[in-house]
Amino acid sequence: MRTKVFTLALACVCCFSLSYAQRAPSAKTEPAAKTEPVSPSRTIVPESSVVTQHQATINGQRIAYKATAGTLPVWDEEGKAIAGLFYTYYERSDVQNRDSRPLVISFNGGPGSASVWMHIAYTGPVVLKIDDEGYPVQPYGYKENPSSILDVADIIYIDPVNTGYSRPTSKDVPGAKFFGVNADIKYLAEWINTFVTRSNRWASPKFLIGESYGTTRVSGLALELQNSQWMYLNGVILVSPTELGIERSGPVEAALRLPYYAATAWYHKVLPSDLQSKTLSAFLPEVEEFTINELLPAMARGNFLTEQKKKEIAAKMARYSGISEKVILQYNLDVSTNFFWKELLRDKGFTVGRLDSRYKGIDKNDGGDRPDYNAELTSWLHSFTPAINMYLRNELNYKTDLKYNMFGSVRPWDNSNDKTGENLRQAMAQNPYLNVMVQSGYFDGACDYFNAKYSMWQLDPGGRLKDRLSFEGYESGHMMYLRKDDLSKGNRHIREFILKSLPKPGVPAKF
User: How many of the other CB atoms lie within 10 Å of CB of 443?
Assistant: First the structure.
């Protein structure tokens, strides 16, 4: 594909290629095929690109691919550039006709988080140098990702405004243009249109993948792309999904936490021996059935639940959660996640992580009702932040003095009128080609797996779409791919989902 050259208004410096000896040994990179200048200042260049050529062994094949790192504008109603979005676009090089080549459009969450997480730890051609369970090791760095989905699909990773290198063009641009559930969906749909048009990918089967708040984003985008850009998808992948605007409160919200508590207690080996001896996959269905059939109806009765029944329910909750019956009764069966993270290993002097409860933290005091910090997030930032800064500059030759925002300022964020779950349902109802897959880690306490199942159940109450909905669970946390086994398994599930979601030639989109 020919790279289009853009004229930049700002004074810039040209990027240059590093020699092969200076690069990571896992991703051989040829000199840049074509480069365009990138800003040496801390102001955004709305349009820029740097192209490099690479090779990697993925899914047992030696694959050549092209990487484009750059920015494209966000336009206002008058066609003026009001922001530049940073993206990284990977294309397999030996594809002659991309009309049938799937394109995966990837977002992370926050909502103020860059796309770094899935980019260099899950689906992209390189992954972090970490241990097999996801803990940081030094020296920091990255290596080839043998599990990447680049063998079956091209991928673009997009950083929304104020994340990564993406910025408004001026401080005078109102934040309301970007920072809200629906504003976010609207401008990103317009941007995707620009990218797809410039990249000549209108004919390609298209997939959205989002993690955490990114699942809210892509659920809304599925309908917005159809209704406002006339762009139809083949699949949406929800990694560690949020509530998607689907109502749950009171007894429902409280009861749905228990299966996650049970999974975490099982991992930390604090359950009775008969439960601890079971595999997680054998144990969790028992807890799920109790949650739906006993706990939820009991909590719905509130103070009219008999004391005897309340004690029976608390005893079962204690058996499954690792929290004492006495404490559960003190909380009237409604144990908050903050308290659980503090309480589960309190007698051992540890807290457990929010996004991944396999991680342990140490607080100043054993007393209290919530941890001092998120043990897992500080661990992840150890390994991700150096790696993405090294990779973009040294491997992809994108050089700028802008700070790469792992997390950016997007407040105040307008959460009103979040109907993204319903948006996704409507998109599926209107588009017979559209399939949805959910991926969740059992030890994720922020976007827990049982709430993800509940969202999937409630997404389509009539049941007509359930044959196009699927769920995959993993013995890890929010970023299940940080665990080596689940990196391979999760990518395999995505690869299978993409291939399954491609209609056979000539099969029409109709019910």
Answer: 29
Closest CA to 241 of 440, 471, 489, 492: 440
Closest CA to 305 of 261, 247, 263, 255: 255
What's the mean pLDDT in 435-456? 97
User: How far, CA to CA in Å, does 232 sit from each of 100, 105, 122, 491?
Assistant: 14, 13, 25, 23
**Within a domain: 6:** no
- CA proximity to 209, closest of 119, 334, 90: 119
Q: For the chain, give the percent of residues with pLDDT over 90.
A: 87
| Number of residues written out for the chain | 511
pLDDT of amino acid 378: 84
Residue 154 in 3-state DSSP? strand
* Cβ neighbours of residue 362 closer than 8 Å, sequence gap 6 or more: 349, 350, 351
CA distance linking residue 147 with residue 122, whole number of Å: 8
Q: How far apart are CA 261 and CA 265, in angstroms?
A: 6
Q: Same domain, yes or no, for 355 and 447?
A: no
pLDDT of residue 31: 41
Q: How many CA atoms lie within 13 A of 71 on its CB side?
A: 34
Pair 150, 119 in one domain: yes
Structural domain count of the chain? 2
Higher pLDDT, 284 or 37: 284
280-313 as b/e: b if 16+ CB within 10 A = eeebbeebbebbeebbbebbeeeeebeeeebeeb
The pLDDT assigned to 39 comes to 55
Given a cut of 90, whether residue 13 has pLDDT beyond it is no
CATH number at residue 398: 3.40.50.1820
pLDDT in tens, 96-110: 899 999 999 999 999
CA geometry: angle 384, 389, 395, nearest 5 deg: 110
Compute how many other C-beta atoms are within 10 angstroms of the C-beta atom of residue 137.
Answer: 12
CA–CA distance, 148 with 474 (Å, rounded to integer):
18
DSSP per-residue letters across 211-239: ETHHHHHHHHHHHHHHHHH----SEEEEE
pLDDT confidence tier of residue 5, bands split at 50, 70 and 90: very low
Cis, bond preceding 508 (omega within 30 deg of 0): no
Find out whether 436 and 455 touch, Cβ atoms under 8 Å. Answer: no
User: What is the predicted pLDDT for the residue at 375?
Assistant: 87
In a shared domain, residues 204 and 72: yes
Give the residue from 373, 408, 439 where a domain finishes: 373
- Band of the pLDDT at 43, cuts 50, 70, 90? confident
Instruction: Mark whether 234 and 299 lie in a shared domain.
Output: no
User: Is the domain of 263 the same as that of 234?
Assistant: no
